[in-house]
Amino acid sequence: MSYSDEYQRKLVSADEAVKVVKSGDLVHYGEFVMNSMTLDEALAKRVEELRDVVIRTVTCPFPPKVVQADPERKHFIYNDWHFSGASRKLHDKNLCNYIPLVYHEGPTFYERGIVQPDVALLMAGPMDEHGYFNLGTSNSITPAVIDAAKVVVVEVNTSVPRCLGGLRESVHISKVDYIVEGPNRPMIQVPPAPVSEVDKKVAALVTPMIKDGACLQLGIGGMPNAIGAMIAESDLKDLGVHTEMLVDSFVDMYEAGRITGKRKQLDKEKMVYTFAMGTNKLYEFLDNNPMCASYPVSYTNHPFVIAQQDNMVCINNAVQVDLYGQVASESSGPRHISGTGGQLDFIFGSYKSKDGLGLICLSSTYKDEDGSIKSRIVPTLEPGTIVTVPRTINYYVVTEYGVAMLKAKSTWERAEALIAIAHPDFQDELVKQAEAQKIWVRSNKL
Questions:
Q1: What is the DSSP string of 34-100?
Q2: Which of 289, 297, 315, 418 lies 20 to 30 Å (CA to CA) from residue 440?
Q3: pLDDT at residue 444 above 60?
Q4: In whole angstroms, what is the distance from residue 292 CA to residue 202 CA?
Q5: CA distance 406 to 326
C-alpha cells in the first residue's frame, strides 16, 4: 500500500477520531503552540458521554474547551507539565493541576512505563513523500508520547513550519492510527514579553559577562528578551545556541551576525532547541532552515549534554530569591505560576561547562495587588513556595543593582552578597532579618 493510500484509509473527521477516547482514559494533548484546538473542541462535545478522562499537556497556550465544558471536573481532569498564562488562570479556579518534573527527565516517564497514555491527540505538519509528518515547533516529550500511546491521532495543519532535526522531529504514518485534516488555523503567536527599564539595566550587567564563542540558553520573559536584544546590538562574535526554548530574540541575534555556532563542541553551526514559541518571524525563520535543529528534551536539557558545550551561558528569570540563595521560579506561596521547566537543568549543567555561567536574573522589586512595592530578595521564602533551584546549585544572581556569585560562600557571605544587590530601600530590614536568622556577620561591605 502506498503512503497516500494509507493516508486516505486513516483519514477521518475530528468527531470520528475522538471516539477512541473512553471513560477513565489518559489522553495526552500536544505541547505549546502544537496543541490542537480542533481535536480539543471535538472531544469537548463528548463531555456528557465520558467520565474521569485525565488529560495532560505541556504549556497549552489557550484554555481548552474540555475544561470550559466541565467546570466541576466530573468528566475531564486537566493537568499541565508547565503552566502557561491560561493554565495559571485555570489553576486559580482549581481547574488545572501541575505535574512536577525536571524537564530533561520527561521522556523517561513514558519510556519506563510510569506514564501510559491511552490516546495522543496531536497536531503536525502535512505528510511528506516519505510518509513523515513533521512535529513542527514542539519536539520535547512528543516522540516519547507517540511511542507509548495506544492510539495516536494527528491533526494535519499546513500552517505548521517544517522544523528540521536534530532527532525525532517527525512521526511516520505507520505510527499514526487516525489522521484529521484541520481548518489550517494560523500558528498561535506569542509576542515577546515587554522589556522594562529594569530589564535593560540587568541586561547591561549581563552582556559584558558573555564572551565571543559563548553558547546561549535564554529562558522566557522580558529579562532574557532584553539581554537578547542587547546581544544583537553588541559586537560579540561566533555565538552558539543550545537552548530549551527558541524565541524571536534568537532570530534577531542571528540576523545581526552574532550567531554562527562555529565554536560549539556539539552540533556545530546548529541552533539546537526542543520547542519554539514566538511570532511569525520565528516560525518563518524555522521553516526548512538547516541552521536550526529540533531535539527531544532528553537531549537539549540533559545536564551532561549541556556541560559538554564550553562557555555555556544560561540566563533565566525568577520570582524570588531568599538570603540562603534558594530560587523560587514557579510559585509564590502555594499559588502556582509556571513550573520547574529547564531552569534547574541549565543552571546545573552550565556550572559543569568549561567557563560556563548560570545566571538567575530578576528585578529587585515588584508591585503586589494593592500597589505596594515588595522586595524579590527575601529573608526566607513564603510558606508553600516551591524551590526551583536549591541553594547548593545556584551560581549567579543578578538584579539591576549588581551581580552576586554564590558558589563556595557561607550562609552569611551569601546573605551579604544578596542584600548588596537588593533594592536599597529594603537592605536595612534584610540585614535585621539576616541577623535574626543567625546568617549575618557585620563587615565593611554594606
A1: G--HHHHHHHHTTGGG--SEEEEEE--SS--HHHHT-TT-SSEEEEESS--HHHHHHHHTT--EE--
A2: 315
A3: no
A4: 28
A5: 11
The size of the chain, in residues, is 446
Q: What radius of gyration, in Å, describes the C-alpha atoms of the chain?
A: 23
Residue with cell 510559585: 331
Query: pLDDT per residue over 406-437, tens digit each?
Result: 999 999 999 999 999 999 999 999 999 999 99
CB neighbours of 377 closer than 8 A, spacing ≥ 6? 320, 321, 322, 323, 364, 399, 418, 419, 421, 422, 423, 426, 430
401 and 340 Cβ atoms separated by less than 8 Å: no
Region 28-33 average pLDDT: 98
Report pLDDT digits (tens) over 120-130. Answer: 999 999 999 99
Span 161-196, pLDDT tens digits = 999 999 999 999 999 999 999 999 999 999 888 889
CA pair distance 324, 439, nearest whole angstrom: 9
Summarize the confidence of residues 153-163 as an average pLDDT.
98
| pLDDT attached to residue 224 | 81
CATH number of the structural domain 12-181:
3.40.1080.10
> Is 244 tagged catalytic?
yes
pLDDT digits (tens, 9 = 90+) for 320-347: 999 999 999 999 999 999 999 999 999 9
* Whether 359 contacts 395, CB under 8 Å: yes
Output the CA–CA distances (angstroms, integers) from residue 430 to 10, 253, 328, 373, in the order listed: 64, 39, 18, 15
In the sheet with 377-378, reading across from the earlier edge strand, the strands are: 327-328, 320-322, 377-378
Q: How far is Cα 4 from Cα 129, in angstroms, rounded to an integer? A: 9
Which triple of cell numbers denotes residue 231? 546581544
Q: What class is the 197-436 domain?
A: alpha beta
Q: Is the peptide bond before 166 cis (omega within 30 degrees of 0)?
A: yes
Residue ranges of the alpha helices (H) in 268-423? 280-286, 297-300, 303-306, 343-352, 411-420
Q: Which residues pair with 240 in a beta bridge?
A: 215
Check residue 221 and give its pLDDT: 76
Domain ranges of the chain: 12-181, 197-436
Q: Say which of 31, 155, 244, 400 is annotated catalytic.
A: 244
239: cell is 555565538
- Same topology, domains 12-181 and 197-436? Answer is yes
d(CA 281, CA 278): 8
* Residue 340: C-alpha distances to residues 59, 242, 260, 316 (Å): 12, 18, 30, 11
Beta bridge partners of 217: 314
Whether 328 contacts 381, CB under 8 Å: yes
